[in-house]
What we know:
The chain is about 40% helix and about 15% strand. The chain contains 13 helices and twelve strands. The strands form three sheets. A seven-stranded mixed beta sheet has the order 2-8-7-6-5-3-4, with helices on both faces.
Amino acid sequence: METEFHRIRRLPPYVFAEVNAAKARARAAGADIIDLGMGNPDSPTPPHIVAKLVETVADPRTHRYSTSRGIPGLRRALAGYYARRFGVELDPETEVIATLGSKEGLANLASAITSPGDTILVPNPSYPIHQFGFIIAGAAVRSIPAEPGEAMLAALDRAVRHSVPTPSALIVNFPSNPTAWVADLDFYREVVAFARRHELWVLSDLAYAEIYFCETPPPSILQVPGAREIAIEFTSMSKTYNMPGWRIGFAAGNRKLVAALARVKSYLDYGAFTPIQVASVAALNGPQDCVAQIRALYRERRDVLVRGLASAGWDVPAPQGSMFAWAPIPERYAHLGSVEFSKLLLERAQVAVAPGLGFGEHGDTHVRIGLVENTQRLRQAIRNIRGFLGTPSNAGTPLGIAS
């Protein structure tokens, strides 16, 4: 029986699959591929967090089902983080919920608040779950510019005036994945005022709150007075504490949205494994020098990558946040688009990157480069890329770069 399920029909072929398949074939053939494609932290989780996990897992009482909202101590720890970092006081009982990573939380909230045919405003390009969480839930997505500023605010105004039905929710994500743009508090004030005027929910993805290289740390939308009337914010342990495989994150903010997410989750999961939650409490409440060290590591890698690519003739803006560089495809190769350029880079330079098309059609002029290898491997990648860009046979006329 040939059946194409309705929700599956709304999901396009996974753009990253082509590059991943080519990467697998190259590795099977013995190639040494430097993989900068996936945002997968390569450094170990700080030892004191691992130690707390080991200590807790030795207690058989922690092996039972947990609670989908998160243990009370973990919700209090997240509220404490918001108080220290942003000066925002949260009620751990009604304004905080633990999730199985921010991705799960975003998808489940989309399911909780979306009716078929709703219009949702999503930046393009953006992290795929921002769009497809709502598409899976039956919504229609309207793209808006991804860069914080007047263009995005003007697009919001047009969307409210011309969309049918009127948009019900907006996604924001700063520091952004994939673009690495960072928003300031003045921008969030504009967004909150607009959302309150037009009764629009705002879902803020702040997963990269602690991976920043600008002088002023990225703010939270919840710092804006009145934001909790319309906004919920998602954070994650994955990048801040090098805990991607642990799958632990949070949502905080508007009580109605937190309650909606809690209700859906109560049907879907029993929460993260209790020892993981206890170890996460140790991370949030314990020494924070590890966070500064992780940030410094990514800064060093960013500087090595951006300087090295510039020396190879590829000018890439230095990201001010996140663990990615958003790299415009070199002019000689722009006609290829991001998927074919990524495949060519893999074949000729043995470097894997993420094609920008995977983050939306407006990302097809770029590739995303992850800072997920040590500096030695990054320098090797740069040497490989320099050789690739300096080879006349690759495309059109040579760049004339000295190797």
